[in-house]
Design goal:
Blueprint lengths: L8 E3 L8 H10 L4 E3 L3 E2 H6 L2 H5 L8 E6 L3 H11 L6 E6 L4 H5 L10 H14 L4 E7 L7 H15 L3 E5 L10 H4 L7 H10 L4 E5 L5 H8 L5 E4 L1 H5 L1 H5 L2 H4 L9 H17 L5 H4 L12 H11 L8 H11 L4 H4 L3
Parallel strand pairs: 1-2, 1-9, 2-4, 3-4, 4-5, 5-6, 6-7, 7-8, 8-9
Length: about 325
Amino acid sequence: MLKNLNKRMSVAPMMDWTDRHCRYLHRLLSRHTLLYTEMVTAAAIVHGDPARLLRFDPAEHPLALQLGGADPGQLAQATRIAGGFGFDEFNLNIGCPSDRVQSGMFGAVLMKSPALVSDCVHAMIDNAGQTEVTVKCRIGVDDQEPRDILPGFIEMLETAGVRRVIIHARKAWLEGLSPKENRQVPPLDHALVYAIKQDFPELEIIINGGISSLAQAKQMLSCGVDGVMIGRAAYHDPFNTLARADIEIFGKPGQKTAHEVVNAMLPYINAHLAAGGRLNQVTRHMMGLFNGRPGARQWRRILSEEAHRPGASAAVVTKALGAVDGSKSQGATTNL
């Protein structure tokens, strides 16, 4: 387990997307980018099967577990259970606006209950051992005025013992907007997040929301925040977003080509299939690897048409990679 995480760049926790297969792919693209699990509810860990919910490949480190919940006792128990799995960070979700999360009275709705958030954070910290506890929040919800309420909310987190806060620079509307619309409709206020960093210099402030490229991430880091968290861009365009992150964000060597990443996925895919898994459970996360490159359409077509078929093997991936190599502009793809 890596103790001194570099938080300059991370991939956001995204439901139905950042599962263990996605994270394994992302780790092949970037050795140093901090990865997050999908949100796992504290109730599911306490009452369900932690081994199934929390398993991950050791190669995924550094890896943070995002927890959802609003019951301090349950969060304490879930944090204690998860402590045995070796995560590098525990993160409390105070940003998700989905109906399912609201019905459980956690996620973004917790921004209306700062005292309860304080109790939840204390409970997690008290049971996390040496593992850092962080919070991911919005700049506000519903009719809250972010510039009025966010400083007080951040101060509460600091008092509760949190030392790193990831701020999604959009308000969340809990009624009237879908989760998808909540990622697009409320206007971004990156300037407010920069101001929060200036007001709380001792806190590590990570900015999230609307970051679509590595160049934009670098520009935001130059504005004084401690890190950037990239969401959908890292999923839909993983190579262009992550492959140069180690060099350009962390100042470390070691960029793989897209072809090398695909070939490195093959042993993982074979192990997954041998354990009874299905090919498309892995390849659905690989669709965007060749975005913007010759052969990308053939790559996506073969995977989408063949990976879901019963008995589909890693040969489908090899075939798709061959289609990339055999595209008309093959010479332009040799350095991918």
